[in-house]
Structures are given as structure tokens and as C-alpha cells.
Design a protein that fits this description.
This protein is α+β, with helices and mostly antiparallel strands and about 425 residues long. Strand 18 and strand 19 form a beta hairpin. It contains 6 helices and 23 strands. The protein folds into 3 domains: about 100 residues, Roll (Nuclear Transport Factor 2, Chain: A); about 100 residues, Roll (Nuclear Transport Factor 2, Chain: A), CATH 3.10.450; about 110 residues, Distorted Sandwich (Glucose Permease (Domain IIA)). The strands form 4 sheets. Strands 12, 15, 16, 17, 18, 19, 20, 21, 22 and 23 form a 10-stranded antiparallel sheet that branches. Strands 6, 7, 8, 9, 10 and 11 form a 6-stranded antiparallel sheet that branches. The protein has a 5-stranded antiparallel sheet with strand order 1-2-3-4-5, with helices on one face.
Length: about 425
């Protein structure tokens, strides 16, 4: 036992001596004046773990992040109403609306238009649930965005951000087989452009009777594509032609110095007539002018107008420039509008579901402006538009009445217009070669 303790003491002594030797060696290492020894990093402290014993009420809470909200305008909405209904207090909403108005006429806000607002919680103790607007945006048109931000002074500033796209010509041609609609869609004509095509020719063509199998159409317009090649917008038609039973009808667009667009033939004569024969897009003619067996009354009765079947809510257009002479319920006609265009012509629209907001008796309207929507009010078997043309106090057939021609371009504008015509063939050739 004594020998064992002695051996242990000797071993411990050696360890002490060796440890001392290492210590001395470390101290007496020669120093180098130009060697820079990097500072050691700060020790990384392990995060505190809450085992449920500490008071977590004193720990700072994470501030909520701004929230992006996509909104869609509904019929009758205003920007003020949309903001307030989404948690923005009235004063902030009013300030933002005032800023946006400097860049955009909010009277043009329409149903279906998309808006985007960025909201953050407002920490005002007097209104803890009120949202604070961080940013707001809406598309003024396909190429311009109205962008509004909150400034450091808690005010709002708005600007227009322009988007750039690749512009290219598009030429679509087709031969009518079963219908213009099907042939146009099959040929790749956008629906919006097809509706524009119908409006242009609606002054000259009865689409229910005059379109035949084998007739052709041709359209030239511009498209806008983003950097990924996606089409974001189609411009209005620049030129269009229809061949109906061998007869060629063609028109090109001209913009006046006042910014108004219209379509003219090669002689500078406007496509527009005093009245449109069909003041509704995409509707089916279901009842013509003349004697017919009344679908409700059951006996033969003179039908002093034409009926166009369409879905409830389909927009109805003013057939020509004029003044609203009558607006309201009118017996079997239901909701009814009558427009006085001049001393000779008036038009009437019956069975509407509702009127265009803001329309009233005495209001002036322009040709093509929406005045109401298809319905089935009054004596009616289903949603449709009953349309009448009144000439010198007598109801006449809207589809056959001879309408006065539109205006002609003056010599100065005609000269400019002829230059546009001269480029049409060249543009079409480039598209076909490209």
C-alpha cells in the first residue's frame, strides 16, 4: 500500500513538471513584430430557452407585416367606399382619393377594374383596428399605372408609371362557313376585336340576313407583348374589309386633331350613319318588323320594331347622338328609353332590366354610349331588346330604313388619310412575309 501511494505521488509530480515546462515554453516563444494575430470572435451565446417559468408578457411582440389586398370594383362602387370597407379610416381614404385624382379621373372607375392596396396596422391607440395605407395602385390603361405611396410626412403622392411593350402588326383573315363568329374565332381573331368589327360594319350590313357561306373578312391591328412574349393588349382596328356576295366594303381608322377615332372609306366618307341598325353586340334577331302572332296575347298583331334576344344584363347602346326624351316605366314596354336624335328621327328601347347609372331625361348621349341593359320587364317572355326607329312620328323598319350618310373628311384631313391608306398594303405584306 505505501509503495502504491509513493508511485502515485511520483506520477503526479511528473505531470506538474511537464505542465510547467509547457507553460514556460509558451511564454518564451520569440515574438514577431509584423505578425498580426486576428482577434478572436465574440463568443456565441446559446439562446435562452423558455421553460415556462419566465414572464413572457414583457417580451417585445413582432410587428405585423403590411398586407397586400387585391380589390375588384363592383357596379356602384367608388374608391372611397372600397377603401373604407377594407378598414381604412375616412380621413386617410379622402387624402388618398385626393392624391389619385391628380393622375386619374375617378369617374372612369368601372365595374371589373382591379385595384391593389398595401395596408399596415395603424398603432394609433384611439383607433387600434384602423388600417394604414402604405401604397395603392390601379391601371389607368394597359400601358399606364397610377402608383400612390405614403410619404414620410404622412401625406400621399401619386405618379404615372409607364410600361413598355413590344408593338407588332397582326393580320387576320377568314372565310365564313357556318357563322361570322365561329369563323372569326377559328381564325384567331380576339373576341374584343370581333365585336369592334361588327360595330364598324353594323351601319352597312344586316348580319342576320346578308352574311353568306363563302364571304370573307380581313382585319389589321396592332398587338402589345411583354418581355415574355405574352399579349397584353390589342389596339383598335386600323383597317378592315369584308367581301359579301362579291361586294367589297372596307374602312380604315383616322384620328382627328381632337383625338376622336372614326372609320372612313377610300373616299373619306364616314362609316357612321345617323343611326345604328343594331344597337347591341352579339345579339340574335328573333322577331322582325311587321305582323306576327303575339307570343303572349296569342293573336296577330303589328310588331312595330325588331327584337334582339340576349342575356340579361347585356349592354344596350344609343343608336345615335341625341337627347333622352323619355326614361321610365311605360306599360307593356317595361323599363323604357326614347332618344330624340334630330327633327326627323327618334329611337326607342324597351324591356330593359336597368338604366345606365346617371342617365336621366334631358341628358345628351353620344352614338355607341351605353344607356341600359337587356332585361325582361313589361310584357315579355324572356330577356331581349325591343328596338324601334321612329321617322317623322311613324315607326319604321330599323333594318331597311334608308339612313343619311355620315360626314366626310375635309381636304386637309383627307390628304393625311390618304397617306394612311398607302401604308396598309405594305403593312399586310410585311406581316405575311414575317
Amino acid at each position: 500500500m505505501p509503495r502504491q501511494r509513493s508511485a502515485t505521488l511520483i506520477f503526479i509530480a511528473w505531470l506538474f513538471i511537464l505542465g510547467g515546462t509547457f507553460s514556460i515554453f509558451e511564454v518564451v516563444l520569440p515574438s514577431h513584430e509584423h505578425n498580426v494575430i486576428p482577434e478572436l470572435p465574440e463568443p456565441i451565446l446559446a439562446p435562452k430557452v423558455d421553460y415556462g417559468h419566465s414572464d413572457s408578457s414583457s417580451a417585445p411582440s413582432k410587428a405585423p407585416e403590411p398586407k397586400i389586398v387585391q380589390l375588384m370594383v363592383k357596379q356602384g362602387d367608388t374608391l372611397m367606399k372600397l377603401l373604407v370597407s377594407n378598414g381604412v379610416d375616412k380621413q386617410q381614404a379622402a387624402n388618398l382619393v385626393s392624391s389619385v385624382r391628380k393622375q386619374y379621373d375617378l369617374r372612369f372607375l368601372k365595374a371589373g377594374q382591379k385595384l391593389k392596396i398595401t395596408l399596415a396596422p395603424d398603432y394609433d391607440e384611439s383607433a387600434p383596428r384602423t388600417k394604414k395605407i402604405v401604397a395603392f395602385s390601379l391601371m389607368k390603361n394597359f400601358a399606364q399605372e397610377v402608383y400612390t405611396i405614403r410619404t414620410a410626412e404622412d401625406q400621399f403622392t401619386s405618379e404615372i408609371i409607364k410600361k413598355s411593350y413590344q408593338l407588332s402588326d397582326v393580320h387576320v383573315t377568314g372565310r365564313i362557313t357556318t357563322s361570322l363568329y365561329k369563323s372569326a374565332v377559328d381564325s384567331g381573331l380576339p373576341l374584343k376585336t370581333l365585336m369592334e368589327l361588327i360595330r364598324i360594319f353594323s351601319f352597312d350590313v344586316d348580319f342576320q340576313r346578308e352574311i353568306q357561306q363563302g364571304d370573307t373578312f380581313s382585319v389589321l391591328f396592332k398587338s402589345h407583348k411583354d418581355d415574355h412574349g405574352k399579349v397584353v393588349h390589342h389596339d383598335s382596328i386600323d383597317w378592315t374589309k369584308m367581301t359579301l356576295g362579291g361586294k367589297v366594303i372596307e374602312y380604315a381608322r383616322f384620328t382627328s386633331k381632337n383625338g376622336f377615332n372614326d372609320y372612313y372609306d377610300r373616299h373619306g366618307k364616314s362609316v357612321k350613319k345617323t343611326l345604328m341598325r343594331t344597337p347591341i353586340d352579339g345579339a340574335k334577331l328573333t322577331s322582325r318588323f311587321g305582323k306576327r302572332r303575339h307570343p303572349i296575347l296569342g293573336f296577330t298583331k303589328m310588331h312595330r320594331g325588331v327584337d334582339f334576344a340576349a342575356s340579361k344584363g347585356t349592354p344596350i347602346m344609343a343608336a345615335g347622338d341625341g337627347v333622352i326624351e323619355s326614361l321610365g316605366r311605360n306599360g307593356p314596354y317595361g323599363k323604357y328609353i326614347r332618344i330624340r336624335h334630330n327633327s326627323t328621327y327618334k329611337t326607342a328601347y324597351a324591356h330593359l332590366s336597368k338604366y345606365k347609372k346617371g342617365l336621366r331625361k334631358g341628358r345628351r348621349v353620344r352614338q355607341g354610349a351605353i344607356i341600359g341593359y337587356v332585361g325582361s320587364t313589361g310584357r315579355s317572355t324572356g330577356p331581349h331588346l325591343h328596338y324601334e326607329v321612329i321617322k317623322n312620328g311613324r315607326k319604321t323598319n330599323p333594318l331597311s330604313v334608308r339612313l343619311p350618310a355620315g360626314n366626310r373628311l375635309n381636304q386637309k384631313d383627307l390628304k393625311k388619310f390618304m397617306k394612311i391608306w398607302s401604308t396598309i398594303d405594305e403593312r399586310i405584306l410585311k406581316v405575311s412575309e414575317g
